[in-house]
Amino acid sequence: MDWLKGLLEKAGIEEGKLDGVIADIGKELPKHFIPKDKYNEVAEAKKKLETDIQERDKQLEQLKNAAGNSEELKAQIEQLQAENQKAAEEWQAKMAQMQLDFAIEKALAAAKAKNAKAVKALL
Fold first, then answer.
1. pLDDT tens digits for the chain (123 residues)?
2. 20: domain range?
3. Do 61 and 114 belong together in one domain?
4. Is residue 41 part of a domain?
5. Is residue 1 within 8 Å of 24, Cβ to Cβ?
6. Judging by beta carbons within 10 Å of its beta carbon (0-12, 13-18, 19+), is residue 58 exposed, middle or buried?
C-alpha cells in the first residue's frame, strides 16, 4: 500500500497519523472491495461462457437454415439445443456458487477471521 501512503502524504496527513490511517484502511478495504485477481478470474470466465453461448447459437441457426425437411438434421438441432440448455444451466450454477463464495469471503473479512481459507474448509 505504498501508493496509498504516497497519496496520503501528498494530502497532508502527518507522518505519525499515517500508519494508523493505513492500518484502518487495510482493515476496512476487504469489506468493500473484491481482490483484483478474483474479479479478473470471474470476468474472464463470464466472457468465455458468453462466447461459447454465442457460438452455439450460431451453430443452431446454421443447422436450421440447412435442415429443410431432413429429420436427421432436426434431431441434431434438438440435441444441440439440449446441450446448449445444459451448458446454460451449468453456467448459472457456477455463477451462483461463485457469488456464494464471494459472500462467504466478505462475511469472513467482516468478522475479522484470521485465516479465511481455514474457516471456509470447516464450513
1. 678 788 888 888 888 888 888 888 888 887 888 888 888 888 998 999 899 889 888 888 887 777 666 777 778 888 888 988 898 899 889 888 888 888 888 888 888 878 877 887 777
2. 1-33
3. yes
4. no
5. no
6. exposed
